Amino acid sequence: MKLIFCGTPEFAVPTLLRLTRPPFHIEMVLTNPDEPSGRGRALKAPPVKRAALEAGLVVFQPRKFRAPLTRALLSQYRPDAIVVVAYGHIIPGWMIELPRFGCINLHASLLPKYRGAAPVPWAIIRGESVTGVTTMKIDPGLDTGDILLQHPTPIGPEDTTEMLLDRLSVAGADLMAETLHELSRGQITPRPQENSEATVAPMLKKEDGRIDWSLEAAEIERRVRGLRPWPGAYTSFRAHGLQIWKAAVAAGIPQAEPGTLVTLAGKPWAVCGHGTALELVEVQAEGRRRVSGSDFLNGVRLQAGEKFDTPTA
Questions:
Q1: Structure pTM?
Q2: Contacts of 10 (CB under 8 A, 6+ apart)
């Protein structure tokens, strides 16, 4: 089966590598252009490009699909399918019509739930117990195409976005291979999505990580896990940034206003809304290394009644 593969981040790499094995043949890999990175702003290749070059594949990095050269180049190919995994571009109509089996997307949710750019973080933040991966035929909408196959997986109580993406990327690679096999044999009947059950997972913004201590501790703890690695859950203490890397809902209700930092059994607890509290298990002060909550307390010499700085809009 002749394929064109479109993808950019680490999440897409397992699927790319899975499709380098027979009976699949990747004719070209499309990925985002190299981007400046680090203090020196040297150009850095995306993970899919690095993996594709190591596998000896042809790589093309268009900035826009509207460029005549891009359309002319891709129109020379007659792939059986175009596989799209976290590419980061909207696939234009002419490209959807190019392959005989269509453009097949791997999406990190059980569609129609969590359509959009950040399905895994939002599934954790909103307290879902199950998520998964879906293969779907791309149409002109945003993650609205017909469902082909799905694979569910539980969300554990300690899962972060990093951990869950790792598992889903592996499961998704196998699901995509199975999907392409069954499509080639005519054994899949595409299933329209139930739009009334759809939920949205918008792209994350830096401000999504700012902690609102008036929320319940359980919701804040889910945000700590769901917002790793970016933008991270953060607050401000003594006018300096403080990132919360790991937290746990505390079994107790300190009598103080939300946002107050208290010490119990040598550990830092943050008072949250609705009579709840959060133990700060691992934190990182601005410009410092990541440390345990206890080590953080030892370094700041907490004063009675001290609070985290109030979030600003």
A1: 0.94
A2: 47, 165, 169
Give the 3-state secondary structure of residue 21.
Answer: coil
Instruction: Using alpha carbons only, give the angle 113, 114, 115 rounded to the nearest 5 degrees.
Output: 105
Measured between alpha carbons, how far is 24 from 56 in angstroms, rounded to an integer? 15
- What is the rounded distance in angstroms from the CA atom of residue 104 to the CA atom of residue 136? 6
Q: Which parts of the chain sit beneath pLDDT 50? A: 313
| Domains and their CATH numbers in the chain | 2-197 (3.40.50.170), 206-300 (3.10.25.10)
Phi, psi of 122 (to 5 degrees): -70, -30
pLDDT of residue 311: 56
Distance CA 61, CA 49 (A): 9
d(CA 273, CA 38): 38
pLDDT tens-digit map of 155-192:
999 999 999 999 999 999 999 999 999 999 999 999 99
